[in-house]
Design brief:
single chain, mainly alpha, Helix Hairpins, elongated
Length: 102
């Protein structure tokens, strides 16, 4: 069995749907970060699939690497903010953090 572009696009759609579901339903800041990371990884799967099956150039590979770097930087920054909020508020619940606005 050979994998076609439809297999990769289906995988990407499933990953994006799971990530969107997590973002919309969870109130934990770490779970929200996990959902956003899943959505970014689904974009990476799309870019790699289109590069492999459609364009056959290195532009999509560069975009995938850039997206991975951006996701890593975003994860580091958000985890620092979450740790700071946990030290300040004692929780990572997003609803409780909203109440801390000045």
């Amino acid at each position: 069995m050979t994998l076609s572009i439809q297999h990769f696009l289906t995988l990407s759609a499933v990953l994006f749907s799971i990530g969107l579901f997590i973002v919309l339903t969870r109130r934990n800041a770490v779970a929200l970060l996990m959902g956003v990371e899943l959505m970014l990884n689904s974009v990476n799967v799309n870019l790699a699939a289109f590069q492999r099956f459609v364009h056959h150039d290195t532009t999509a590979n560069i975009a995938v690497v850039a997206n991975i770097l951006i996701a890593a930087c975003e994860a580091a920054a958000v985890l620092g903010i979450v740790i700071s909020l946990y030290r300040t508020a004692g929780t990572v619940d997003v609803d409780r953090v909203r109440n801390l606005k000045g």
